[in-house]
Amino acid sequence: MTRLQGKIAIVTGGASGMGAAMVKLFTENGATVIAADINEANLAKIGEIENVIPKKLDVSSDENWAQVVKEVKDQFGRIDILINNAGISSEKPVHLVTEQDWVLMQKINSFGPFLGIKHVGEVMKEQKAGSIVNISSYTALVGMGNNPYSASKGAVRATSKAAAAELAAYNVRVNAIFPGTIETPMTDALKEAKQALNMLVMATPMQRLGQPMEVANAALFLASDEASYIAGAELVVDGGFSAR
Ligand SMILES: NC(=O)c1ccc[n+]([C@@H]2O[C@H](COP(=O)([O-])OP(=O)(O)OC[C@H]3O[C@@H](n4cnc5c(N)ncnc54)[C@H](O)[C@@H]3O)[C@@H](O)[C@H]2O)c1
Q1: 8-243: which CATH architecture?
Q2: pLDDT at 64 over 80
């Protein structure tokens, strides 16, 4: 398959879960993929895949982004695709959440994608082409999940819309994906919390959790030229959870 033939892509959080699935799928489709993550052990593993370049990046650092984007631009001369996927979650009850917890969540989950748009957006504007996909969450759409996490993902939703409107004139498309509960290391704890797991499955019209590759396939479509007139879209990949 060659749906991304010759493209240069950056996938943040590319060393685990959905990001790792995207890295694999994109390279299978002809892209060279920079897997950007803070987890060096997992980066080393994903870096063994052909046409994957592992890079250490803390998405919440302006300086880190500037450095990584410069390195990719110097090496390849362009950046065609950015997937803002890195994120953290928390199950801390609201009454225990501190200012520090709140700030950290926003810094990684919403400031991170903003910085990606800021730095990679400039490169894409210059080349008058590019596709940015931001990974939000179904918790930005319905009243579910941990409060600071939902807020951070709501910010990703709004940031996507604003960036889509701003960058479309440069032929840079910005879209967002809203995954439901997907089986990744982030949701590993659910395997032990049988009651919560059952509740989620029962509340999902498709009666099951999602798989990382099901989100990666949606990202592949939005990243590819097949989505050439799609900007500001919100693609829900949640087995119908938010349709109820
Ligand atoms: N799994 C789900 O059910 C689910 C549902 C909706 C949305 N999401 C979102 O999807 C994205 C991917 O999640 P996942 O389930 O694959 O999780 P995951 O924990 O498997 O992967 C997240 C990756 O992000 C990396 N990361 C964390 N902080 C970082 C930072 N500061 N800089 C760079 N990388 C960092 C981690 O090292 C990890 O490799 C996240 O944004 C998450 O919030 C997940």
Answers
A1: 3-Layer(aba) Sandwich (3.40)
A2: yes
Which of 18, 159, 187 maximizes ligand 1 atoms within 8 Å of its Cβ, making it the mutation to test the pocket? Answer: 18
**Mean pLDDT for the chain?**
97
Q: Decide: 220 and 4 in contact? Cβ < 8 Å.
A: yes
**What separation in Å is there between the alpha carbon of 169 and the centre of ligand 1?**
30
- Is 138 catalytic? The answer is no
Residue with tokens 């596709």: 131
Report whether pLDDT(60) > 90.
yes
pLDDT in tens, 138-179: 999 999 878 999 999 999 999 999 999 999 999 999 999 999
The residue ranges of every structural domain in the chain are 8-243
pLDDT (mean) for 223-232: 98
